Amino acid sequence: MRAVAFFEYGPADVLRAIDVDPPVAGSGQVRVKVRAAGVQPFDTLVRRGWMPDAVPSMPATPGNEFAGVTDDGREVLGFTTLGCYAEYVVVPDDQVVPRPSNMPWEVAGGFSAAAQTSSIAMEQLGVGPGDVFLVHGASGSVGTVLTQLARLAGATVIGTASEANQEYVRMLGAIPVVYGDGLADRVRAITDSVTVSLDAGGHGSLDVSLELVKDRERITTIADFQRAPSLGVRMLRGERSAARLSKIVDLYAQGLLKVHLREVFPLEEAAAAHQTLESGHGRGKIVLRVA
User: Fold this and answer.
1) In what order do the strands lie in the sheet with 196-199?
2) Which residues contact 1 (CB under 8 A, 6 or more apart)?
3) Which of these, 44, 87, 86, 37, lies nearest to 64 by C-alpha position?
4) Which residues pair with 18 in a beta bridge?
5) Does a structural domain hold residue 96?
6) Are residues 119 and 146 in the same domain?
7) How confident is the model at residue 82 (pLDDT cuts 50, 70, 90)?
8) Is 12 a domain residue?
9) Over 80: is that where the pLDDT of 212 sits?
10) Same structural domain for residues 222 and 277?
């Protein structure tokens, strides 16, 4: 089968298209012929060698979310840790859920990670009615889903984004604000009662959250792992599950949640997909089309 792998850690161009033997499902597993696979910041960290414990051996195939068709004909989307940049992936059978008919393959392939990360954040931070939620990086894949989940939960959302993405953030239901120098003052001009914050943007966003949110237990980050412990801020932690994923898939199926595709690349252009993701400033999700 076709797959994309890296034989050494490094920049995006260490990713290579290769031919390998397809995996075989064992007891309690399911094999999926992949139609699309999402491209995540986690994938780039693995490729760069920041998470060596996640790579049991070389060559390693990145990719932790996918959509496709099982050997017995079911259309599914699901999650794992590695191996999704390939024509076939094998995962435990409790790591896939049915794909709704109104969810395009590319959306399904890039749905699980942002959806589950956002769900875990909502749970960990206890976001609900009356909250004013500051979301740094609201136009990204996680920010897009998180903003909508928070609005559905009754929170007011203030979303930071570049100038070019202000209208997009507004369309998600948030009050948009341009990130960068002076951000705290721009937020204060909107409200002085921010109660909770998630940093999906990095670049000093945590400092702004600490300035505006009184309770550090209600601040978390998925972008500034190195500084979080010294600042007394919790990093996002939680378990992915089919049950969690199903709940958010249902919201999409009901038309209550939208996902924007930033760009779709062929599998063989995974290196270009990584380069685009690492360039920053985009909106929505980057996906690989496999079949």
Assistant:
1) 175-178, 156-161, 132-136, 196-199, 219-221, 234-235
2) 19, 20, 21, 22, 86, 87, 88
3) 37
4) 3
5) yes
6) yes
7) very high
8) yes
9) yes
10) no
Give yes or no for a cis peptide into 92 (omega within 30° of 0): no
Assess contact for 127 and 198: CB atoms under 8 A: no
Question: Are 193 and 277 contained in the same domain?
Answer: no
Q: Is residue 9 located within the same domain as residue 45? A: yes
State pTM to two decimals. 0.94
Is the same domain home to 20 and 131? no
Confidence of residue 137 (pLDDT cuts 50, 70, 90): very high
What residue has token string 């190195």?
226
Q: How many domains does the chain have?
A: 2
Range of the structural domain that residue 132 is part of: 115-235
In a domain, 244, yes or no: no
pLDDT of residue 281: 73
| pLDDT exceeds cutoff 90 at 238 | no
CATH of the domain at 225: 3.40.50.720
User: 34 in helix, strand or coil?
Assistant: strand
> Do 124 and 84 belong together in one domain?
no
| Confidence at 57, pLDDT banded by 50, 70, 90 | very high
**CA–CA separation, 66 and 255 (whole Å):** 21
pLDDT given at position 92: 98
Nearest to 257 by CA among 244, 266, 247: 247
pLDDT tens, position by position, 263-291: 999 999 999 999 999 997 789 999 999 99
Nearest-Å Rg of the Cα atoms of the chain is 19
Residue 249 lies in a domain: no
Average pLDDT on 154-171 reads 96
The candidate with the shortest Cα–Cα distance to 44, out of 64, 58, 67, 18, is 64
- For the cut 90, the answer to whether the pLDDT of residue 231 exceeds it is no
